[in-house]
Amino acid sequence: MRLYIDYGATNFRYQYDNDEVFVFFSSEIDLKEFLDEQISQNKVSFVAISFAGQVANGKIISSPNIGIEPFDIKDYVKQKYNIPLEIENDINCATLAEGFTRISKVLTLFYIGTGLGGGTILGDNTLLRGANFLGGEFGHIPFKKTPFTCGCGRDDCLELSTSGGAILKWTKHFNLELDEVTLTNLKELDEKNATLIYNNFYEGLRLLFHTTLNFIDPDYLIIGGGVAQDETEIVEFLKKEIEKSSYNESRKRFTIEMSSFENGSLEGARLLGN
Ligand SMILES: [Zn+2]
Question: Whole-model pTM above 0.70?
Answer without folding.
Answer: yes
